[in-house]
Amino acid sequence: MKAGFTTQKILANSRRKRLNRRLKLLKHKRCKISLNQIVLRCTVIPRSITRRSKKAGLPPGTIVHVGEKRRAAVKLSVISYDGVNFQEQEVKTVDEALALRKKPSVMWLNVDGVHQPEIIEQIGKSFGVHPLVLEDIANTRQRPKMEDFDDYLFVVLKMFRFDEKDDETKTEQISLILGSDFVVSFQESEGDVFDSIRDRLRNNKGRIRKAGADYLVYSLMDAVVDNYFMILEKLGETIEEIEDKLVTNPTSETLQTLHDLKREMIFLRKSVWPLREVISRLEKAESPLINKSTFVYLRDVYDHTIQVMDAVDTYRDMLSGMLDIYLSSISNRMNEIMKVLTVIATIFIPLTFITGIYGMNFEFMPELGQPWGYLVVLSVMLAIALVMLVYFRRKKWI
Amino acid sequence: MKAGFTTQKILANSRRKRLNRRLKLLKHKRCKISLNQIVLRCTVIPRSITRRSKKAGLPPGTIVHVGEKRRAAVKLSVISYDGVNFQEQEVKTVDEALALRKKPSVMWLNVDGVHQPEIIEQIGKSFGVHPLVLEDIANTRQRPKMEDFDDYLFVVLKMFRFDEKDDETKTEQISLILGSDFVVSFQESEGDVFDSIRDRLRNNKGRIRKAGADYLVYSLMDAVVDNYFMILEKLGETIEEIEDKLVTNPTSETLQTLHDLKREMIFLRKSVWPLREVISRLEKAESPLINKSTFVYLRDVYDHTIQVMDAVDTYRDMLSGMLDIYLSSISNRMNEIMKVLTVIATIFIPLTFITGIYGMNFEFMPELGQPWGYLVVLSVMLAIALVMLVYFRRKKWI
Amino acid sequence: MKAGFTTQKILANSRRKRLNRRLKLLKHKRCKISLNQIVLRCTVIPRSITRRSKKAGLPPGTIVHVGEKRRAAVKLSVISYDGVNFQEQEVKTVDEALALRKKPSVMWLNVDGVHQPEIIEQIGKSFGVHPLVLEDIANTRQRPKMEDFDDYLFVVLKMFRFDEKDDETKTEQISLILGSDFVVSFQESEGDVFDSIRDRLRNNKGRIRKAGADYLVYSLMDAVVDNYFMILEKLGETIEEIEDKLVTNPTSETLQTLHDLKREMIFLRKSVWPLREVISRLEKAESPLINKSTFVYLRDVYDHTIQVMDAVDTYRDMLSGMLDIYLSSISNRMNEIMKVLTVIATIFIPLTFITGIYGMNFEFMPELGQPWGYLVVLSVMLAIALVMLVYFRRKKWI
Amino acid sequence: MKAGFTTQKILANSRRKRLNRRLKLLKHKRCKISLNQIVLRCTVIPRSITRRSKKAGLPPGTIVHVGEKRRAAVKLSVISYDGVNFQEQEVKTVDEALALRKKPSVMWLNVDGVHQPEIIEQIGKSFGVHPLVLEDIANTRQRPKMEDFDDYLFVVLKMFRFDEKDDETKTEQISLILGSDFVVSFQESEGDVFDSIRDRLRNNKGRIRKAGADYLVYSLMDAVVDNYFMILEKLGETIEEIEDKLVTNPTSETLQTLHDLKREMIFLRKSVWPLREVISRLEKAESPLINKSTFVYLRDVYDHTIQVMDAVDTYRDMLSGMLDIYLSSISNRMNEIMKVLTVIATIFIPLTFITGIYGMNFEFMPELGQPWGYLVVLSVMLAIALVMLVYFRRKKWI
Amino acid sequence: MKAGFTTQKILANSRRKRLNRRLKLLKHKRCKISLNQIVLRCTVIPRSITRRSKKAGLPPGTIVHVGEKRRAAVKLSVISYDGVNFQEQEVKTVDEALALRKKPSVMWLNVDGVHQPEIIEQIGKSFGVHPLVLEDIANTRQRPKMEDFDDYLFVVLKMFRFDEKDDETKTEQISLILGSDFVVSFQESEGDVFDSIRDRLRNNKGRIRKAGADYLVYSLMDAVVDNYFMILEKLGETIEEIEDKLVTNPTSETLQTLHDLKREMIFLRKSVWPLREVISRLEKAESPLINKSTFVYLRDVYDHTIQVMDAVDTYRDMLSGMLDIYLSSISNRMNEIMKVLTVIATIFIPLTFITGIYGMNFEFMPELGQPWGYLVVLSVMLAIALVMLVYFRRKKWI
Fold first, then answer.
1. What is the arrangement of strands in the sheet containing E168-178, beginning at the earlier edge strand?
2. What pLDDT band is residue E27 in, cutting at 50, 70 and 90?
3. Which of the four pLDDT bands, split at 50, 70 and 90, describes residue B54?
4. What are phi and psi for residue E76, nearest 5 degrees?
5. Nearest to D324, CA basis, from D269, D264, D258
6. Dihedral angle at the C-alpha atoms of C258, C263, C268, C271, nearest 10 degrees?
7. Average pLDDT, stretch C204-222?
8. Tens of pLDDT along A349-380?
9. Which residues of chain D make contact with E364, given a CB cutoff of 8 A?
10. Nearest-angstrom CA–CA distance, C124 and C116
């Protein structure tokens, strides 16, 4: 799913390009075709609902892919490991994958693509998964959640991944099924944040090969949460640039961008917030599938989640503050203009009155006949103008 | 009950018609006769209270229909099924319906219309239902709730249904009574969102025929919640169109519409929010009427309810943001006008002063006699005007 | 206590009179003497505190009447009933009342007036009531609450009653003491919302004669809550009328009225909110004084209380929205004025400049000598004016 | 401690003096020296922190007086009583006081002044009090709290007392130590709200002489809470006067006063809010030091506390509403001015244009030669002015 | 870490310097290079995230220093004490430190600097600390927290320290490990708020030498919390100075400063708030590592934490109020200007109209020929001007 963080996407093209150009791009895109901004809007909410409604009326447990249309074939890859052995293989069919399962090794079956119901169904049958879980896997609009089915745990996460190749932030739903000796992970498309985990598995780094399937699930969750920090870092850069912009040259696009950022914060918050509950429910579940020794790691992910929430909240406070500053600086600018213009008008209005007096056609106006009359009047007008200027300046009006 | 979602109703006439016309319609309706907008206002609160007050002073358990007046006869339809048998029949009287009850089949008695107290009373007696429950069925202003009476469970829901035929969104109260082998459902009028369930029953699709009465109740609740997504989708479209409108041409009708939408959100929220508690109480009730295997389905409905709440909250945030943007764009427009006009005035005021000077009638004004005087003054004035224009532009005031 | 809902009181005089006149009345009253508005203000808070302070320094349990001064004699009325017998009598003294108590009949002693400490004290002694309870009965500024003294329960409610005779809404504190076979109810003055209950007792309608004292207390509470709906209905009418007013002709009185209504909502909320806790504590108390079969009725009152709260909250949201609309429509009106006036000024300023030019007294101004000069200048000025008007209209400034 | 409620203090000088003068005083004081306003500000927060920091680095349990500097000698007074005996005496030293303790009488040792660490320490040793408690007694910036040390309970309260003599509201910290047969109370200075309690002890009024030390502590707390109502009453008067002021003549001082009142509300809230917890913890502590029969009295104080909170919250709501009204009335006034002035200018600008036309010096201007020209033009200008005035009035702009 | 409280830092240079200069400095810094203001911004959030992202992909338990770069060598100092013995020594290596450990003395190992992973790792191994704890020690962006590992407790705090030497406020993360007879404390750099504790240890002041390791941890926490008061005191001074500034001469820098202060409050709040939970979890942990007698001291720290929170909240309320006052005083100033200027213009516009009349060139204008015409007109104009001035003054417009 290409979506979510438009600003980041644009930022990524070239970090050094001026925000100015970015804002123009944003605006340009907004008012023309497909434009990421609109995509964001559609993705965040309406689309999730739109697609959802396709399902109305179907019996529960019907696997319907709800999400972006995809054409790429579903990719299956299997990693099977224990303290000693390690095997990694891409397979074509679910049966092939199952053939690679040999106890007591832990098998990690990763599925890239949830748009082929038959594959999900086959996996579901092989591992004895409840139809409603399969439905949730295909319907990529779930909130992060954890469900305990005794034989297996089902965890849904939202992965935010910055794809260096496409210069884009991608949002995907990750569904994890944790059994006693297997983990099945479903992603919406190829490409993920788990390369470092595969690395550690291959090279037997850290505890991961010695620990069980539960530790693998923890590692996957940890990788997902760690990538939130990357996204936050990028958002933070955008916010800082806009903050500079605010002081120097606030425009109505800045307001739009502030609101867009606020909305992205809300979106991010909604993706991260339920994670707290997911993890604390994992701990409280007292499932035999999770080792006690893994709890301390889960608590670590929990702490990171809270740190993400803290940062998101701080950003939101900053954005609110910036909104206030924007509004007050806009009105300050307007006031400045009005003030200066009014001062000019005010100085000339009494002067024009004086010229009006000596433009009157009375026959008996002694001043008019005086040779010095004109100069005196000019001088008086100059004096009045100067006095007013001095007065205004002393009052700090100009 | 014809009510609730005016905007949707209008939208439905022709999705492709411009929002512009819709807004005009809205406004038009508001200021003239019966107008849905007013209906909404009346329905959402005052009317519910108005009708409620009719009841003051009556002993508890008195069945009084509180809601829209209806004249259509109450319609009773019975579906009786088990894994093997299926029977569907429309009946005239409650006794006819009861005659069709044969254990161990599950009987679903659907009642279209709650404005005939005698029918509700008769059903109540036949199934041993508490008088207060019967009162709540007839009084269609209940909040969604669940009550456990050991022998049966009583569930109240709010159904939002888009009626394709009438191009209208209809809101109705659905009251469900779940016994060990029967389900009685009460609706305010004909037409509902349960056709797909009837279909599944007829054609023995999915688990529904094999499962018991509790699964039927779950299916009904699921159908109700699924239709909230349809409503949200429509609201989402309206919001998007208004958002475009906001940027291009905000009017005071836009403000009104924003507030109306906000109010509809509040109304929707109030209808959905208590559902969470209803479902979690169903789970906690530990009633023998509900199979453990149905719990996972209830949890699924629960998740959907939360997704609806999430979407509603996101819409509300968007609407608040749009309100801010509206207010600031209105004030921006005003500022633009004032600024340009003031600039024009400001340029001409000093020039008029100059013409005033040479309009004075002093006898001794050497410039006046010069043949080039007029041209010089004209040029000077042109120069002053240009300098001011350049200055204003450099200051970005125009 | 004459107080609380000024707006309703005025409304009641004649429902068909225009809000306009009402608002004028409101304003009029506010700026002159005693004026209900001020009474409201005094009653809602300051007075309750004022009177309260009289008590500072007295030992606890001292019965001091805190509330509106009253002179009418305290009225005692006794109803004694069971499934078979019914006796109703007005008595002069507490002893007379006690003489009518004959087990196992339920005795309902109703006391109209709490300003005679000696009577309260006497009743307290006869029924073995704690001095602090007696103090609370006389001090009519309690929040709704429920206290369990094992032998009896003490319940405080706020009754809002629309008195058809005086065309006024009256607020009174109702204190109820529930014993095993008696109920004592204290009101501040004559007139209440319990006539329908007395009717049901007299005519043996519904369960009431068969049920015990606890059911009577429930009936009293239900009658009190049912009357909140009447008050809400009236407030709803006022709100609707003001809403119409807002669009057509907002004045600063409208703002005042909005704030007054908001304050009344807060007052109503404070009276209703604690009721929730009162009822749920009645359920949790597990007092032998309350039959299990009464619980379902209490739950019904609880639901009504929540419906009242819901309506109050909706009204508050509506009032907030109306406040926003008011402020923006006020500023819109101002902007309209400023805009049109500025446009007029702006058109004439350049024209006046042109007249200024040809008013100059240069000797060499060729145009002045031309016979067509005057007409040309007039035409040019007309053209300029027209161009500006067209431009302004195209920009939608006028 | 002279502080807290400046407005009250000023009010007290003469209740009948106009608020106007008071506001001037406020403003005057604010901009000059010591001024109560500043004292308030310093007292409420900065000073509490300032003094607190003196303590940084000292070992815990070090008794350091944190609060206003005092020079008066600490005063010790002992009251010893039981149902039969009563003895009251002022003593010089702690030993003298202890000598008067004779079981089973209850001894109440009242200490006026906490600025002499040695006295607090001596008392602490005699009654076996923990050093941290002694530290809290001397450090008068505690929040109200209750601590259970098995042998004794430690309670901290904030006393607001209106001192008739000095015409001032005084805020003091009251620390109470409740043992099985003694109560020690610490005040910051002489003068308190306990005179009525001493009276009741002397004259054996009510239960107080028969009840134990716990009832005495309750009585002290009750006296403290009762005096909050006095303070609220005074604040209520100020608020009402400002409300009148708001409508008639809002100034920027009014805004300042509104904010000051809001701040005082926050201060009062902070002093009262923790009291709820203090009392409910007293109940839950199940300490043998508190008789069950005292619980109903504690609950009574609890109810009063909630009534105080309710009033404070209502006042805050009122102040917020008044702030809104203030802002809108300020902007209304401004708008009125601008409107009238602009209307005047607008009427004369077209007229001046007309005079400009006939001030032009074209040779061929037929109107100029007409004898009736001047009168016609004057009449036309008059007509234009009248038309504009009528138009403006019809539009309700003037 | 040099950061956090810029305003304080600047304030510290010379407390007597005028805020004016400070504000200029602030502004100056903001718009130029490195500038503390920016440092604050970077530190508070973006940086914490930036650095955090370095870690993405590493296996959990990898010790990576996340925080400000440091070059100074890590300093280890050991204090070993019991009631009788006391030994204090600076050591080079962890082994040296461990050699000084001799039971039953309590050993306090203080580590200044967490940027050398190997030292942390060595300490971790020696004391049997979990790798994730070591990771948290090096990653200085933790929220305050407490974790119970049975054998030891892990506590994270945020230390705010005003460094007199550098005239700077420094923020550091303090990590504490409490074992049965040892405490290890990690700081980011040299210099801390613990000197008074070292003093008390050296001189055997108070209970500290007699009590165990848990009391030492309490003392460290107490010292950290006590220093928050110092920071608050400084912030309070700044707030007061800005408040004065607000009334006399509000500028847009004031607004900026207000927002900066608000942000610092949020930062402080985030550092202090979790401390409440830390301490209450320490109490609830029921760890054998903490003596019951220490609980009363922990409760004392808890109370102080709440006092800090209270002060922070009060400051925030004050800042919000000041923001309101700022905005309204800005708009007041603007209104004043506009009003006076408009009044001037308005007076002269009618007068100019009159001069226009007598500037017209009609042949038949009888007034023009009158010798007193000129004087009369001048007088009339003067009269009009005076009447208008009087009118405006009476209306209080000028």
1. E86-91, E75-81, E106-112, E182-187, E168-178, E153-163, E145-148
2. very low
3. low
4. -115, 130
5. D258
6. 170
7. 92
8. 999 999 999 999 998 888 898 889 999 999 99
9. 370-374
10. 13
Q: Closest-CA residue in chain C for D238?
A: C46
| Residues B241-287 pLDDT 10s | 888 777 677 777 787 788 888 888 888 888 888 999 899 888 888 88
pLDDT of residue D104: 83
Give the 3-state secondary structure of residue A39.
Answer: helix
What is the structure's pLDDT at C202? 93
> In this complex, do D205 and C59 lie within 8 Å of one another by their Cβ atoms?
yes
Q: How far apart are CA B272 and CA B160, in angstroms?
A: 10
The residues, any chain, with a CB within 8 Å of residue B71's CB and separated by 6 or more, are none
Interface test with D, best of E237, E242, E349 (most D CBs within 10 A): E349
Per DSSP, which regions of chain B are E strands? Answer: 75-81, 86-91, 106-112, 145-148, 153-163, 168-178, 182-187
* Encoded tokens for D291: 């008789």
Q: How far is B51 from chain C (nearest CA, A)?
A: 9
Residue E388 confidence (pLDDT): 92
pLDDT, tens only, C284-313: 888 899 998 899 999 999 999 998 998 898
| More confidently predicted of C71 and A172 | A172
Tokens encoding A370:
């005086």
CA of E170 to nearest chain A CA: how many angstroms apart?
21
Residues of C in contact with D367 (CB under 8 A): none
DSSP designation for A163: E
- Give the whole-angstrom CA distance, residue E17 versus residue D177: 47
- Two tokens, residue E177: 């490990």
CA atoms within 13 A of residue D50's CA, in its CB half-sphere: 11
Ramachandran region, residue C151 (left: φ > 0; alpha: ψ -120 to 50; beta: rest): alpha
Nearest to D197 by CA among D159, D168, D169, D233: D159
Cβ–Cβ below 8 Å for E341 and A346? yes
Query: Structure pTM?
Result: 0.77
Distance from CA of C78 to the nearest CA of D (A): 30
**What sign has the CA pseudo-torsion C228, C230, C235, C236?**
positive
Q: Determine, for residues A303 and E143 on separate chains, whether the beta-carbon distance falls below 8 Å.
A: yes
Mean pLDDT (whole number) for C131-153: 91
Distance (Å, rounded) from C-alpha C108 to C-alpha E47? 73
Task: Please judge whether A359 and B364 are an interchain contact, meaning their C-beta atoms are less than 8 angstroms apart.
Answer: no
Cβ–Cβ gap D356/C361 under 8 Å: no
Chains that touch E (3 or more CB pairs under 8 A): A, D
Question: Residues near A264 by Cβ (< 8 Å), separated by ≥ 6?
Answer: A4, A5, A7, A40, A235
Listed in sequence order, the DSSP H helices in D139-187 are none
Contact B56 C353 (CB under 8 A): no
Model pLDDT for residues D144-184, shown as the tens digit of each residue: 999 999 899 999 999 988 777 776 677 899 999 999 999 99
Closest partner CB to C306 (pick from B143, B147, B344): B143
Is the per-residue pLDDT at A58 higher than 70?
yes
Give the residue carrying structure tokens 């206590």: C1
Q: d(Cα B149, Cα D121) in Å, to the nearest integer?
A: 64
**Separation of CA B135 from chain center:** 27
Picking from C49, E314, C142, C48, the residue whose alpha carbon sits closest to that of residue D231 is: C49
CA torsion, points D31, D34, D37, D39, in degrees to nearest 10?
150
- Please, which residues have CB within 8 angstroms of residue C124's CB and are 6 or more apart in sequence? C130, C131, C133, C134
Query: CB under 8 Å to B323, separation ≥6 — which residues?
Result: B255, B258, B262, C324
Residue A253, CB-side half-sphere exposure with 13 Å CA sphere: 17
The 8-class DSSP code of residue D65 comes to -
| Close Cβ partners of E168 (under 8 Å, ≥ 6 residues apart) | E2, E9, E12, E162
